[in-house]
Amino acid sequence: MSEIKILIVEDDIVIANDLTSIVQNEGYQVIKTAYNYHQAIKAIDSYEIDLIILDVNLSDKYSGIDVANYIVQHKQIPFIFLTSYSTKNILDEAKKTKPAGYIVKPFDEKTLITTIEIAVFNFYQNHKAPNAIPVLQKLNEWLMDKISEREFDVLMQIYEGHTNKRIAEILFISVSTVKTHIINLYSKLDVNSRTLLLAKVRAYMK
User: Fold this and answer.
1) Cα 7 from Cα 39, distance rounded (Å)
2) Domain map (residue ranges) of the chain
3) Class of the 136-204 domain?
């Protein structure tokens, strides 16, 4: 699939289902739902993930902050904390992991989507090639199967952290066409997620 891939780590199945419904309606793909620390770690190690929505308080020996520490130590994936509690101690512990966002329950749909958009945008901006914007000609010098101008237009929108739905609106094309272009980009750059796509482009632009 060519959507932004999200892992949800939430021990309340009702809230997890609500999160899934909201983000999928907005054009994201929920790659997996984990209900405890061990399921979360297994998913993080098994899937290509672009963003994690992470409940701080899991009904487990380990908390969402423990999951966050694992992400920081082993992966480069942005994550957003979700919690019913906002005490100073929890906030202090959460801030040490440098999350991409922090949402207090009960949350509303607009706040959730806005936080996700900002988190993805900031991550992509911070991981761009240093002092470089992808240039079609330079990328194609490295590739056997060349990127088309339209695929490059889509790539530039991915660089801005936009969902397929938003890319379609910006480029005045259908979501289906956006997906086709992204699948072609994945194939030409030999990747299977937006995070890996970003990393590969960054490597070529050095």
Assistant:
1) 11
2) 5-126, 136-204
3) mainly alpha
- If DSSP codes are grouped into helix, strand and coil, which group holds residue 55? strand
The position carrying tokens 């908390």 is: 63
- Per DSSP bridges, beta strands 79-83 and 101-104 are parallel
Q: Which residues have C-beta within 8 Å of that of residue 203, sequence separation ≥ 6?
A: none
Contact between 67 and 37 (Cβ < 8 Å)? yes
Please name which of 67, 54, 75, 56 lies closest in space to residue 127, comparing C-alpha atoms.
75
Give per-residue pLDDT as tens, 115-142. Answer: 998 888 888 777 655 555 678 888 898 8
Structure tokens at 172: 């005045």
Topology of 5-126 in CATH? Rossmann fold (3.40.50)
Conformational region of residue 27, where left means phi above 0, alpha means psi within -120 to 50, and beta covers everything else: left
Q: pTM of the predicted model, to two decimals?
A: 0.76
